[in-house]
Design goal:
Strands 1, 2, 3, 4, 5, 6, 7 and 8 form an 8-stranded mixed beta sheet that branches. A two-stranded antiparallel sheet has the order 9-12. It is built from 8 helices and 12 strands. It is α+β, with helices and mostly antiparallel strands. It has 2 domains: 179 residues, Nucleotide cyclase, GGDEF domain (Alpha-Beta Plaits); 120 residues, no CATH class. Helix 1 packs across helix 2. 29% of the residues lie in helices and 23% in strands.
Length: 329
Amino acid sequence: MDLTEARYELVISVDARRSGEYDDVDKPRMRARIYRVLEAAFTHAKVARDAVHMEDRGDGVLLAVASRIAVTRLLGLWLVEVHENLRDENRALRVPLGLRIGMHVGPVRHDARGISGRAVDLACRLADSPVARRLLDAEKADLVLVASNSLYDDVVSGGGKFIEAARYAPARLELKEGEVTAWFHLPGRPAPEIPAEPRSSAGDPSTAGDRSTAGDPSTAGDPSTAGDPSTAGNPSTAGDPSTASGPSSTGGARSAPDTSTGTDGRADGDEAEDDDEDEAEDDRTAGRRPEARYTVHGDMSQHHDNVYQQPVHIGRITDGARSRKERGE
């Protein structure tokens, strides 16, 4: 054999679906199934073993079939046998084995280590294309064939035994070599509907960085209050311990100090102290033991991540402390 001479051959690239999900125990079994399926198909299609060059690719097989074998036999009877053998294998499997097959005819060079050439590259790219992957999953199929545009024009379009051009659907593929047209076929089914390419979140205004909310003052910090003019400087929330550490005051812009006072000229904190003293007096009059209460002095609105920026004192006031306060001690 002249290793420098290229010969026109049918290149077949076979890849297993989701091969990365097989562990070290299951992967050898998966590989054995692929070889059983392919070799039985060659036997039933009466393709001589010496007419087939076969290379192992770990999770698949690369083949080149000599030009003395009619391409129509591979596209027709051989593909039917592959599909039937694969279905037989999958009947006993919980997770069925799926195969993606790329086909192209072109010049192939053989050497001591295998085969090479653009025809080989294209067949491999077709089998590994994202469209082939999506179609196999979307249709829950066992097998998808991806034929090159030239193979479709030269062979498939002319028909033949087990070859129906109407069952192929075209799609444009972006490959490393550029944009090409490929034809997709699911054995035993009508022409497939090519699944649309999923929208990527990157660069998508509806998802990237959540642009629907990024920079929106109504969602910065707490979506319910941050940046809301109806709550900024509101005396009903400023200085309230129940809101000082809540999500409405953390993560967003710091609130302006609350300088509002009650209608009688006293600050809200002073009114709260008077209310506490009145409740304590009611407890003493009714003969109940007064409960310990807490009072807060200082501006509670100036803090960031619960670190207060102004002097704040939180003290415990008991009945005895109130009595001393009333006596002026």
